[in-house]
Amino acid sequence: MELTVGQIVEGKITGITAFGVFLDIGDGKSGLVHISEVSRTYINDLNEVVKVGDQVKAKILNIGEDGKISLSIKRATEPEKKEPRERRERRAVAPSKPDNSYVWTPKKSESASFEEMMNKFKQTSDEKFSDLKRKNPEAKRSKRGAMK
């Protein structure tokens, strides 16, 4: 029997190790199914999923020059396809409005010029800076020590 990459074969599990499962695929040939290729879910212990003597289908992933055959049980079966959601479902949900609370806009009753806005900003900034200085006396001490 001629084996090719991508072919799906049926075989019998002959051995289980910590890193994978050995599969007898007939004609005196065997291959290895790595633990990551056994199932689509995480496997902690292969003995919980398969047993020696189980008949399984596997897909040939690679045939090495030395004759080693890499197999995959999970790729031999089609993955469960999720039903596509209809576009109408997604459109039914109203998009959330962006939060514009960070944008400063003058009140309609205010007609502030650029200079007035800058003066207001400078005043607010100076007040915040002086509050920080009052609350952190260590900053003043370290500056005085550095000047000496």
Description:
The chain has 148 residues and is of the alpha+beta class. It has 2 domains: 8-72, OB fold (Dihydrolipoamide Acetyltransferase, E2P) (Beta Barrel); 105-143. Helix content is 26%, strand content 24%. The chain contains 3 helices and 5 strands, in the order βββββααα. It has helices spanning 87-92, 114-135, 137-147, and strands at 8-16, 20-26, 29-34, 55-63, 69-72. Strands 1-2-3-5-4 form a 5-stranded mixed β-barrel.
Give the proportion of residues in helices.
25-40%
Spatial strand arrangement across the major sheet: 1-2-3-5-4
CATH class of the largest domain: Mainly Beta
Question: Helices and strands: which structural class?
Answer: alpha+beta
Estimate nothing, just give the exact number of structural domains. Answer: 2
Question: The CATH topology of the largest domain is what?
Answer: OB fold (Dihydrolipoamide Acetyltransferase, E2P)
> Would you tell me the overall average pLDDT?
80
CATH superfamily grouping of the largest domain:
Nucleic acid-binding proteins
Low-confidence stretches are: none
CATH architecture identity of the largest domain: Beta Barrel
Shape: elongated
What's the alpha carbon Rg, rounded to whole Å?
35 Å
